[in-house]
Amino acid sequence: MDLTELSIMTAMSPPARDPPPSPPFCFIIPELPKLCSSRNQMASRRVGFCLSEKKIKRMNLSAFADLCAGHGIDVVEINLSQPVASQGPFNVIVHKLSDVIVEAKHDSQSEQLLSNFQSYISAHPQTVLLDPLPAMTQLLDRFVSYRIMSQLQTTLKGRSICCPPYLEINTRDPSVIQSAVRSRQLSYPLICKTRVAHGSRSHEMSLIFSKAGLCDVHPPCVLQSFVNHGAVLHKVFVVGDDHFTVERPSLKNFPPGPCDRSTIFFNSHDVSKPESSSHLTALDDTMPRLPPPSDDAMVALVRQLRAELGMSLFGVDVIVNLHTHTLTIIDINIFPGYEGVPQFFSSLLNYIESIMEKQGPLLPDRSPQPSQHEEQRPTGGYKS
Fold it and tell me: Is the pTM of this model over 0.85?
């Protein structure tokens, strides 16, 4: 077997005298104008949200809908099990159909739901989709997203921005993998991630410390040189022209080079969530704190990624190399949770309004409406 088998490369409440501390993930909701405080008031501008039930709850969509109502925007939770046209028209649709896109490859029902949604979008070109389905689909495949990240080293040359060397693995043969590791000059330890960048399995990762650990590789996957970064992850959350950077815990430093240590298997949610506490993130107290990424570099990175991806709602995981202080990109995420970004609601609303300002009047859908004898449609959202 040769190297050809590898593709190298809250809702608002009256103020209390002694308010409790805000939860870490709350979004700031500005005071609404009294004139348009009713969420049920008919609005001439409409935005649809097509999200899983889990995402709707985490985002607190009802609170965002109240904010939008104060600006004359009606928020609709789209139910994919019903004709989308009967729920429109929409100026903008915000979605995260990652589950449906992945499941459509092997589930006929999900395939039909996705097809119906695509048909609606094709028939309503005036509706702006955040984000376009092809753009989102490419980020579900780490083989594709890592190629995009790798190209940034060229497009952002001179900005001290890089992506660690990596391999696309399609074989279980340790000897072939080891040969490719040498050829591409990857350095141990290696971090291994699944090819599919969505779902619970996508968070299952491993650290491989020598060629003996290559037998723990389960293709298809990505192998990437691990970069020591002082156990600090910088999560960049993008909302249109805005971006926000939040620090999270991350993997601690490991001695460079191969060693006889056994492979470490871990879930990234256990390491890099705001509330994470793991022995894998513990640093020596004498470890100096690394400087944060420069504002100029972050602005350049976000601008270039928006152009490359054609997306407006995404996240970027970056670290600062312990030795070179180079800004290092390690992952891109579809419509993340925006935890730790209290400005998310206001920023998203501003971006949606900026899109609507460029649109003409919203035309009613002429698709047949459900008959009175049809079962009343449930609340929006799809199972995940």
Answer: no
